[in-house]
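Purpose: get a first structural picture of the assembly so the mutagenesis plan has something to point at.
Setup: two entries, given in the order below. No constraints added.
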Amino acid sequence: MHKTAKINWATTLESALARARAENRMVLLDFFNPG
Amino acid sequence: MDAVTYPNPSVAEFIEENMVPLRLAFNSEPESIVFKLRWTPTLITLDAEGEEHHRTVGFLPPEELIPSLLLGIAKAHFDRDQFSEALSRLDKILADYPKSASTPEAVYLAGVARYKSTHDPKFLKEAYERLQAEYPSSEWTTRAYPYRLL
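Result (structure tokens, whole complex):
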């Protein structure tokens, strides 16, 4: 079975929430330290 | 997370198929203030209206991240009284990740969800009995302790 190797991260809260509403999904928000 | 967990194919597949992934730097404003960020990595499950339902702080390996995310999705549904949707995720945690750190909370929450959807207290007692048998040192076993009397 093919498995996705890459996560396609949204970069704005607005775009993520809009997609979540459209796709009826929850958002995973990862606050990270880019170094 | 970038070195171990996110490159894991099962993790990437789970996130891509079940959630909308969003990454923000720790100093992003206003989000870091709105969500009261104190440390990284902080992972938060939000519903589509931006309401928080689950949060973890610190590194999680692949075998812990997936059940933690399932728990977050379940809690988002539970908080909206969508018990069937919550239970499908909780039961997957119990079946597929019985040894994860998220599992005792999933047992507890599944008992509560079944009670709230049926009003049958046997589900609370069953949750306690399972916690006592399988996770006796968990804080969730302590929280369920009163249910032994039902």
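The mean pLDDT of chain A is 90.
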